[in-house]
Write a structure and sequence with these properties.
By secondary structure, this protein is α+β, with helices and mostly antiparallel strands. It has one domain: NADH Oxidase. It is 33% helix and 19% strand. The chain is built from nine helices and nine strands. The protein has a seven-stranded antiparallel sheet, with helices on both faces. Strand 2 and strand 3 form a beta hairpin. The longest helix is centred in the last third of the chain and has 22 residues. The protein is globular. The relative contact order is 0.19.
Length: 260
């Protein structure tokens, strides 16, 4: 058998399969974790940079959107790659953010939170960033969602944001034409604190929970989404300001209204 090289597809296929099987729960239960060692839990959400402008979202209790029956939403779910110039309203964006990371409660000790999507150990390791092109009441730019406060922080306003979005998604031009692009960044330590060596598989599972809720919530408001798994890691991290080590983008989704 010929020796494999670093670019051998078979080598990477096997490595990927091993990752999917990773998770020795017996070993995890027998070894100390930072939680068992009594170390403090990491913050449940990122903080806004000093001086960043914040934007309050429509509270979930005040939203009158998304009344479509679940069966109908599941039946109508499709990946949408063509968008009209129509913007999303702030209420619609508020609904999508609540549907994907909305807060139910924070534990009494402040170490965990329960939200509208499941997460192993209630760790919720994903930060939600938004690349806003067309949302009524918001300037174009990169925003950070804070689920506990249910608000947005404006981080930066890059020039040619549509072009940067397309480039970061490996030249998928439709991504730059979306009304808003969700970029989910993993903060591994939120899960590692509790799950140590088995944390990383459940982080990937969390991405699926979040994006499926986005798909169904989009259908319920007459919009559409398209999940993006092919992207330039460094470009996506730079776009949201992640350091690529303790935080990095793992999933994107373009959202907009369908063309008439």
């Amino acid at each position: 058998m010929a020796a494999t090289t670093a670019t051998d597809p078979e080598k990477w296929r096997q490595a990927g399969r091993e990752f999917l099987k990773a998770g020795d729960w017996a070993a995890w239960s027998a070894n100390p974790t930072d939680q068992r060692l009594g170390l403090p839990a990491p913050p449940l959400e990122p903080s806004c940079p000093p001086g960043a402008r914040t934007f309050e979202l429509v509270p979930a209790a005040s939203l009158a959107l998304g009344a479509m029956p679940l069966r109908e939403a599941i039946a109508l779910r499709r990946s949408l790659r063509r968008y009209s110039p129509e913007p999303l309203s702030l209420a619609e964006l508020s609904f999508l953010l609540w549907a994907t990371q909305g807060l139910h409660e924070v534990s009494p000790d402040g170490a965990s939170s329960r939200r509208t999507v499941p997460s192993a150990g209630a760790r919720h390791p994903l930060n939600t960033y938004l690349a806003v092109n067309r949302v009524s009441g918001l300037e174009p730019g990169i925003y950070l969602y804070q689920p506990i406060e249910h608000r947005l922080c404006l981080l930066r306003q890059p020039e040619d944001l549509p072009g940067k979005l397309a480039a970061a998604s490996l030249d998928q031009a439709f991504v730059g034409k979306a009304a808003v692009v969700f970029l989910w960044a993993a903060v591994p330590y939120r899960c590692e604190w509790r799950y140590s060596m088995v944390a990383h598989k459940v982080i990937a599972l969390d991405g699926g929970h979040v994006c499926q809720n986005l798909y169904l919530a989009c259908v319920a408001i007459g919009a559409g989404a398209c999940a993006i798994g092919a992207y330039d890691q460094a470009a996506a991290d730079t776009l949201v300001g992640a350091d690529g080590a303790d935080e990095f983008v793992i999933y994107l989704a373009a959202v907009g209204k369908p063309p008439h």
